[in-house]
């Protein structure tokens, strides 16, 4: 059967290996599997969320509130913006999909960092758009500007991942604002803030404020997710914040009931659980230092991280081999070979998790 041409150069996103797979393939007991591969929250699910979900279970027969009034209201208060500036997606992934379907086609292109979140490229390819990447793996705004000027007729969307997944580096807010100022108003600049809460906690110069973006620019879309710091990866819920004009355009692509009732309930509840968020931030910063210390002591290169993961770069060892050996012990990490790097990305876990990872790593070095 013949399919659309765009499918020919499409590959699936390589997701972190699920716990069940390690249990099945390597006979590791489920309780002994440690997954630090997808930047999920090691604190688990907020107790408040768990309670609210039990209550919501009795209403599973009803369609969700498609206006998503309560969650939009809560996000409006949090960011001091209007509900009309918000779109909710089944993960912020879905908002990326809406944005690319709204702005790209086979005649134009997107511009991204050399090594960044793979879904930008995948969704752009759905539309037949071209992908321009900077030579540098990490975000380099001078290089972004150079390519933008050269390919101005083609580029319709620019992605800045602040901080960047899977490398962990983070641009300063003032440089980002200056860069956006230099971009044509018809180009959509997408700021992916999936880990911005972690960056802000470490260094306030990294904080991207959606309200600032709205006040200053008509062509920026900010993305937030409940999958990382809020510990709701399994609920698939995220959001986009932009001018009313952009939100209206993206909303045309949103199918009704794209977010389930439990997801809406969970997101609303976790926004109220400030302690859960605070504990997550504190654990992350404290435990990150242990990985940095380990790397320095063992001559490993690492990228200073503003996220909830750290990327170790290997010279002597092979990252695939290390990941494979750890997997057999039940430790799931993210090999970055697929990104053309001899590197491993490790999600920061609880103290006992990190101790186990570092001990196992030490034995392999
Ligand atoms: C995790 C992640 C997302 C979105 O995740 P969802 O689960 O779809 O909300 C977006 N961007 C980056 C960079 C991420 O790491």
From TrEMBL:
Its cofactor is pyridoxal 5'-phosphate. GO terms for molecular function: histidinol-phosphate transaminase activity; pyridoxal phosphate binding. The modification N6-(pyridoxal phosphate)lysine is found at residue 228. Its EC number is 2.6.1.9. Keywords: Amino-acid biosynthesis, Aminotransferase, Histidine biosynthesis, Pyridoxal phosphate, Transferase. Residues 31-360 form the Aminotransferase class I/classII large domain. Pfam families: Aminotran_1_2. GO terms for biological process: L-histidine biosynthetic process. Pathway: Amino-acid biosynthesis; L-histidine biosynthesis; L-histidine from 5-phospho-alpha-D-ribose 1-diphosphate: step 7/9. It catalyses: L-histidinol phosphate + 2-oxoglutarate = 3-(imidazol-4-yl)-2-oxopropyl phosphate + L-glutamate. It is an enzyme of class 2 (transferase). InterPro entries: Aminotransferase_I/II_large (IPR004839), HisP_aminotrans (IPR005861), HistidinolP_aminotransfase (IPR050106), PyrdxlP-dep_Trfase (IPR015424), PyrdxlP-dep_Trfase_major (IPR015421), PyrdxlP-dep_Trfase_small (IPR015422). HAMAP family: HisC_aminotrans_2. Belongs to the class-II pyridoxal-phosphate-dependent aminotransferase family. Histidinol-phosphate aminotransferase subfamily. NCBIfam families: hisC. Homodimer. This is Histidinol-phosphate aminotransferase. It comes from Campylobacter geochelonis.
């Amino acid at each position: 059967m013949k399919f659309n041409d765009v499918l020919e150069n499409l590959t699936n996103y390589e997701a972190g290996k699920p716990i069940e797979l390690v249990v099945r393939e390597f006979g590791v007991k489920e309780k002994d599997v440690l997954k630090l591969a997808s930047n999920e929250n090691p604190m688990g699910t907020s107790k408040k969320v768990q309670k609210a979900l039990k209550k919501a279970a009795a209403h599973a027969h009803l369609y969700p509130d498609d206006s998503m009034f309560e969650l939009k209201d809560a996000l409006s208060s949090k960011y001091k913006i209007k509900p009309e500036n918000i779109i909710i997606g089944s993960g912020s992934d879905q908002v990326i999909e809406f944005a690319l379907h709204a702005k790209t086609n086979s005649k134009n292109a997107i511009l991204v960092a050399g090594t960044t979140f793979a879904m930008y490229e995948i969704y752009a390819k759905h539309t037949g758009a071209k992908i321009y990447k900077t030579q540098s793996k990490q975000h380099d705004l001078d290089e972004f500007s150079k390519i933008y000027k050269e390919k101005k007729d083609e580029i319709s969307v620019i992605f800045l991942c602040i901080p960047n997944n899977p490398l962990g580096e983070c641009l300063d807010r003032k440089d980002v604002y200056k860069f956006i100022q230099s971009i044509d108003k018809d180009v959509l600049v997408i700021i992916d803030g999936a880990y911005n809460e972690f960056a802000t906690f470490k260094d306030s110069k990294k904080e991207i404020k959606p309200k600032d973006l709205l006040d200053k620019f008509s062509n920026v879309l900010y993305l937030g997710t409940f999958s990382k710091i809020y510990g709701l990866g399994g609920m698939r819920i995220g959001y986009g914040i932009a001018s009313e004009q952009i939100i209206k355009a993206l909303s045309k692509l949103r199918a009704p009931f794209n977010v389930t009732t439990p997801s809406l309930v969970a997101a609303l509840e976790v926004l109220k659980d400030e302690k859960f968020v605070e504990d997550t931030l504190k654990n992350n910063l404290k435990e990150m230092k242990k990985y940095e210390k380990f790397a320095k002591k063992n001559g490993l290169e690492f990228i200073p991280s503003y996220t909830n993961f750290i990327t170790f770069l290997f010279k002597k060892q092979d990252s695939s081999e290390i990941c494979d050996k750890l997997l057999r012990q039940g430790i799931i990490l993210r090999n970055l070979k697929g990104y053309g790097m001899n590197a491993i990305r490790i999600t920061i876990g609880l103290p006992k998790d990190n101790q186990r990872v570092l001990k196992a790593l030490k034995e392999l070095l």
